[in-house]
C-alpha cells in the first residue's frame, strides 16, 4: 500500500481507502445481511486484513444502514485497531441546527466505539448540487458552529464536506472552514479534474474520491461494448488506476465487504500502472 498526504491535515493516508457504505446497506449490489453474527465476523476479518496490508483511511456515515455501518466498523476496530486508522464519518445537514449536529456526532462516536473522529464531513445529498441557499444555511444556521465546537472539545480533528456535484463546492472551499473534500470523480465522471481538483489542490485541501469503481457502471458499459474485454484488461484495476493517476487525489475510498476485495484493491495500489491524464484529456479535446 502506498500513502499520500491528506492536504493540510498532514495525515498520511492510504491511497486506497475503505468506504463503509456497502457494510450497512442490505442487499446493495449483492445479497448481504448487515445484522447477522456471520456479517460481524466477516467485517472483523476484513478490517484486520486491511490493517495488516496498510489500509488506514476508513470512511462511513450514519445514513449507511441507519448507523449499522458505523456499528460494524466500531466492532471491527476493537482490540487496539482504532489507533492504526484514520476514521471519517458524516452528518446530515438539511434542516439540522447546531444541537442536532452535536447529537448526531455523539451517536456516531458511540457506534464507532471511539472518543474522537479524524475527519467529520457534511454529508451531501445523493445526486444533489449545493445551492447558494444551502451554502448560507450551512454556514449560518448551526452546522459550522457545531463543527467548531467539536474541534475545540477534541471530538473531531478535521472538517470536510462531500458532494456528488463537485463544482457546487467552490463557495465552501473559499471559506477556509474545511480541510477535506470528498467528491464524485472517476473514469465516467471526470469534470472535477478541470476545476475543483486544481482549486482544492491550490488550497492544500485533502481530496477523497467516492465511487472510484463507478458502482459497476463503467464495467457494465465496457462488457456491453466488447464481450471479451475482461480477457484483455481488469476493469476494476483500470478504473482505480485512473483515479490514482491524479497525484492531487489523497485517497480513493472503495466500498468493500470481504477480505478478497481488500486484497484485490491493495494489489492495484502495489502495481501502480498509472495513466498520463494530461495526454488523455488532450486526446479527448482533439477528438
Give the topology.
Elements: E1 3-5, E2 12-14, E3 16-19, H1 21-24, H2 37-53, E4 57-59, H3 68-76, E5 86-92, H4 98-112, E6 117-123, H5 132-140, H6 143-153, E7 156-163, H7 170-173, E8 180-184, H8 196-202, E9 206-210, H9 217-225, H10 229-232, H11 235-244, E10 251-255, H12 259-271, H13 277-286
Walkthrough of the structure:
By secondary structure, the chain is α/β, with parallel strands linked by helices. It has a single domain, classed as TIM Barrel, CATH 3.20.20. The protein has 13 helices and ten strands. The strands form two sheets. An eight-stranded parallel β-barrel has the order 3-4-5-6-7-8-9-10, surrounded by five helices. It has a two-stranded antiparallel ribbon with strand order 1-2. A hairpin with a 6-residue loop joins strand 1 and strand 2. The radius of gyration is 18 Å and the shape is globular. The protein starts with a strand and ends with a helix.
Amino acid at each position: 500500500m502506498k500513502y499520500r498526504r491528506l492536504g493540510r491535515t498532514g495525515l498520511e493516508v492510504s491511497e486506497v481507502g475503505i468506504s463503509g457504505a456497502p457494510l450497512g446497506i442490505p442487499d446493495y449490489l449483492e445479497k448481504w445481511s448487515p445484522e447477522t453474527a456471520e456479517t460481524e465476523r466477516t467485517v472483523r476479518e476484513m478490517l484486520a486484513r486491511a490493517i495488516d496490508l496498510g489500509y488506514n483511511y476508513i470512511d462511513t456515515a450514519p445514513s449507511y444502514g441507519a448507523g449499522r455501518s458505523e456499528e460494524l466498523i466500531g466492532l471491527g476496530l476493537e482490540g487496539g485497531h482504532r489507533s492504526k486508522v484514520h476514521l471519517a464519518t458524516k452528518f446530515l445537514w438539511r434542516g439540522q441546527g447546531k444541537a442536532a449536529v452535536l447529537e448526531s456526532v455523539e451517536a456516531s462516536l458511540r457506534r464507532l466505539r471511539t472518543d474522537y473522529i479524524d475527519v467529520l464531513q457534511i454529508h451531501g445529498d445523493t445526486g444533489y448540487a449545493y445551492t447558494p441557499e444551502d451554502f448560507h444555511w450551512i454556514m449560518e444556521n448551526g452546522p459550522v458552529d457545531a463543527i467548531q465546537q467539536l474541534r475545540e472539545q477534541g471530538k473531531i480533528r478535521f472538517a470536510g464536506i462531500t458532494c456528488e456535484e463537485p463544482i457546487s463546492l467552490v463557495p465552501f472551499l473559499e471559506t477556509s472552514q474545511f480541510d477535506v473534500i470528498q467528491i464524485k470523480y472517476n473514469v465516467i465522471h471526470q469534470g472535477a479534474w478541470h476545476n475543483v481538483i486544481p482549486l482544492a489542490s491550490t488550497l492544500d485541501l485533502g481530496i477523497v474520491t467516492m465511487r472510484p469503481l463507478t458502482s459497476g457502471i463503467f464495467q457494465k458499459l465496457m462488457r456491453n461494448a466488447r464481450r471479451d474485454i475482461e480477457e484483455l484488461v481488469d476493469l476494476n484495476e483500470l478504473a482505480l488506476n485512473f483515479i490514482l493517476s491524479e497525484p492531487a487525489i489523497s485517497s480513493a475510498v472503495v466500498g468493500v465487504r470481504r477480505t478478497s476485495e481488500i486484497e484485490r484493491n491493495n494489489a492495484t495500489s502495489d502495481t501502480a500502472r498509472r495513466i498520463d491524464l494530461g495526454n488523455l484529456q488532450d486526446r479527448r479535446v482533439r477528438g
